[in-house]
Amino acid sequence: MERILMIDDDRELCEMVREYLAPEGFELETVHSGETGLQRALAGEYALILLDVMLPRLNGFDLLRQLRANSNNTRVLLLTARGEDVDRIVGLEIGADDYLPKPFNPRELLARIRAILRRPAGAATAPQGEIAVGDVRLDPASRSAFRAGEALELTAVEFDLLEALLRSAGTIVKREQLAKNVLGRELSAFDRSIDMHVSKLRRKLGNMAGGQERIKTIRSVGYLYAQPVAHKPAAAERR
Q1: 207: Cβ contacts below 8 Å, ≥ 6 apart
Q2: What pLDDT does 123 receive?
Q3: Per-residue pLDDT tens over the stretch 67-91
C-alpha cells in the first residue's frame, strides 16, 4: 500500500479520508499540528502529503516552505478552506503540486491523488531520450535538467512541464493539454494551476542569450517554448 501523510487539525475529516482511501490501496497516516507534521514529513517516506493550509501555530504555507528548504520533494496536495485565489497561488508558488478547495468530494480527492502520483510512475518505467533545446538539456531517465551545464532545481511538476514544452518546442501547447499531461486532470473554471507553474519555471530558467523569452504566452490558447534564434554573423565576418 502507498503511504500518504495527512496534516490537518480536523480529526473527523482525517478519519473520513482514512476510511475512504483504505479500500483504494492507500495507507493514511494523520497528524494534527504543523510542527508534528513537519517532523513526520522529514523523517518518513510518503508517496504524497495532504496538507491543510489553516493549521494552528505552524501553518501549511510555512510548513511547505520548510519542507522544500530541506530538499524534500515529496508530492504535496494542498487543502485550502478559503475561496480566495491568493491561497492557491501562494501554495503553488512555494512548491505545492496541486490544490483542492474544502469542502471536497472524496471521489475528487481520490482522483487528484491518483493524478498526482500517475506521472512519476510513468516517467520512471518508460523514460524517453534526452532533449536539448538551446542551452537547456533534460534527461527523463534521471529526471535531471540543466541550463548552460548547470543543474536546475525543479519540482516534479516543473520537470514534467518543462519536458512537455521542450518536446513541442516551436509549437503551441494548449493549457488544457498541459493540464492533462502534467497534472493528470482537466482544468476547472478559473483554474490557474498551470499558469502559476509556468511562471515559476520561467523564473528558474531565465531568458535566453540576448534576452529572448523562453516560454511565450499565447493568449487564450496556451504556451510555446521558443526555439533559440541562430546568430547571424556580421557582414565583415561573412567576408
Answers
A1: 213, 214
A2: 37
A3: 988 988 899 999 987 656 677 778 8
The three cell numbers locating residue 91: 501554495
- φ/ψ of 109, rounded to 5, equals -60, -45
Q: Among residues 232, 231, 223, which one has the least CA distance to residue 170?
A: 223
What is the domain partition of the chain in residue ranges? 2-123, 128-225
CATH 3.40.50.2300 fits 2-123, yes or no: yes
Q: What cell was used for 178?
A: 498541459
95-111 pLDDT, tens digit each: 888 888 888 999 999 99
DSSP E strand stretches across the chain: 2-7, 26-31, 48-52, 76-80, 98-101, 131-133, 136-139, 144-147, 150-151, 172-174, 215-218, 222-225
Residue 68: Cβ-neighbour burial (10 angstroms; 0-12, 13-18, 19+):
middle
Work out whether the CA dihedral 104, 108, 113, 115 comes out positive or negative.
Answer: negative
According to CATH, what is the number of the domain 128-225? 1.10.10.10
Cα separation, 154 vs 204, whole angstroms = 8
Please determine whether the domains at 2-123 and 128-225 fall in the same fold group of CATH: no
